[in-house]
Structure formats: structure tokens, C-alpha cells
Amino acid sequence: MNTSKPPMLHIVLLGRLASWCQPALARRLRTPHSLTSIPDLARLEDFTAELARAHVLVGWPLTDALVARAPHLRLAQASGAGIDGLTLSSLPAQVRVANTFHHEAAMAEYALMAMLTLTRRPHLCDAQLRQGNWDGSCIWGETPTLRELRGQTALLIGTGHIAREIALRARAFGVRTIAVSRQPAHSAAEPFDEIIPYAAWHDRLPTTDFLIPCCPLTPDTDGLINTAVYTRLPRTAIVINIARGRVFDEQATFDALHTNRIAGAALDTWYRYPATPGESCHPSRLPFHTLPNVLLSPHNSAWTLPTITGRVEDIAYNIDALAEGLPLRNLLR
User: Fold this and answer.
1) Terminus of the chain with fewer CB atoms < 10 Å: N or C?
2) For residue 102, which of 144, 169, 162, 59 has the smallest C-alpha distance?
3) CA gap 258, 262 in Å, rounded
4) Which conformational region is residue 75 in: left (phi greater than 0), alpha (psi within -120 to 50 degrees), or beta?
5) How far apart are CA 237 and CA 244, in angstroms?
6) Fold of the CATH domain 104-296
7) Which residues of the chain form CATH 3.40.50.720?
């Protein structure tokens, strides 16, 4: 029986999100290791030696250039689902790539919260009543203006983890879900009410109440939600961005909301981010923050304790598995 200890692994945590998890990761690792955090990726040159001896890179974004700086690298472990900066086919043969999820339930809750908020508008009612304004109350017998989720249709672009969790929760509210798939014949129907091919999704826009892309940012999805899409949506439609900011064309989205071409939007991912903690920074070059029909959030739909706990557990498991020669979770190559 082999009783030798696994070799020391040198692990580099890249970016603020991965670095924030250092104490929790250290507590979970069985493997002998050293941990180096680089919260500020602008300071990579200060860590040339640490990168040169790294066996594991953990973080986001991971890039081909970073991998090239780590000649002893054995695992590039994304701290989330995205591996946008890596070209898998060009990486050295010994480098394994894995990602992690656990964000789908949190993001699905955000999507349902946005659907309810923008449909029932409790924040506006609250603000009115704080000023003594009873407009919209049942007590005057006025014609109701509020809608319900029941009977509405959500078009989900994608059939992955996030789309499925949204569909499960939407069903409880009586929302019909239509999922868009590039391979509809190979996509499991449950929990969606319908799956349609990618080529057909524009045809469904006129009957869509909620449009929710659940897809990664790729050359094909950059600017996917554009003027042509907004033109075909009904004026009562609501869009929700929990993907990447650039999946929604910035100017087209602002114009559609500013002119009330659509009813509203919930935007969690953006076009501009602060460079340092505490920096005041509007999330776009355009004044989305002035629009009353937009629900803004600071890219936190998935940033919950259960999400991060699950990710740290996956990352620790993969590092230990790498050292012990066991299969890795969420292995991409």
C-alpha cells in the first residue's frame, strides 16, 4: 500500500472573489499546499515567481496568457461557471480545466423576484403610500392596472442549470416557460413547458412576457438582445439580464426602456464596473439609473452564502483529487 504523502501543491488565487475565499479553502484542503492570493490582477508582475511555480490557478477570469506564465500548471480551476478567456484546444496537454456552479438557485430566485417586482410594483406602491397617496387602491373601485404572473409566458434562451431552476420556480406561479435550445432533440423537456430550436426564438417574441437569456457570453451572443428583438417584443414585455452585460446591446436596451418600447427590465450584469472597492461608478455610459422602469442590482444575483460555500467545496475537492489521482468535478478537459 502506498503511504507516501501527496506532493506539495502551489496554489494561486486570482482576483478578489477567489482571494476572499482563501480562509475557507485552506480549512477544507487535505493536500499539503501553499496558497498565494493576488486580489488585484493589475499587480501580476509582483507575483511572477509565484505564478512560475503554480500547480493550480483558481479564479476568474482565467486566460491563455495567465496559463502561459505557469509552466508547471496542472489545473486551471474557474471560481465560477465562466471560462471565457481560455482556448481549451490550445492549452498544454497536462493542464486540466474545471469550473463550478451552485449559483443557479440564487439566480432563479432573483429572476422570480424581478418578475414579481416589475409586475406588481410593490416598491412604487410603498413609495406612494409613504406620501399618503392611495392611487391604485381597491377602495375607490378604480380599474385595476396590476397584472399577475399567472398565465404569462417566459422565453428562456438556454436549457442549462439556471434556465431549469427558473422554470421550476416559474411553474409554481403559473408561468409558462419556453426554452430555446440549439439541440432541442437532445434537451430534456422537464421542467420546461416547451423546447424550441434556436432558429425559431425570434418568432416567439410577439407572445413573450418575460425574456430571460440564460447563456454564456460568446461571439454569437454578444449583442444578442438588440433593436430587432425589442421591435418584436410586445410593449408589456419585461427583460431580465442575469447573463453577461454585453449579451444585451447597451444602446438598444437603453432606447427600448427610455421610449417605453418595452415595459421594464431587471439588469444585474453590466457594461462598466468600479476598479476599486468604494469607488462610485454608474454601471453604464448611458443613464440607466435615471429610468423608472429599470430594476438595477450590482451583479449580485448569485452572490449568496450557499453559492460560495458550494463553490469552495468543489474547488477544494478538485485540488485534493488532483493530488490523489482521482476524477475531478465539472472537468471541461
Assistant:
1) N
2) 162
3) 9
4) beta
5) 20
6) Rossmann fold (3.40.50)
7) 9-102+305-324, 104-296
d(CA 128, CA 135): 8
Pairwise CA distance, residues 301 & 291, whole Å? 20
- The cell numbers describing 322, all together, are 488532483
DSSP 8-state class, residue 226 = -
- CATH class, domain 9-102+305-324, is alpha beta
pLDDT-based confidence at residue 85 (cuts at 50, 70, 90): confident
% of the chain exceeding 70 in pLDDT = 98
Report pLDDT digits (tens) over 156-207.
999 999 999 999 999 999 999 999 999 987 777 889 999 999 999 999 999 9
pTM: 0.91
* Helix axes of 104-120 and 305-324: crossing angle, nearest 10 degrees: 160
> How big is the CA angle at 329 (ends 323 and 333), to the nearest 5 degrees?
85
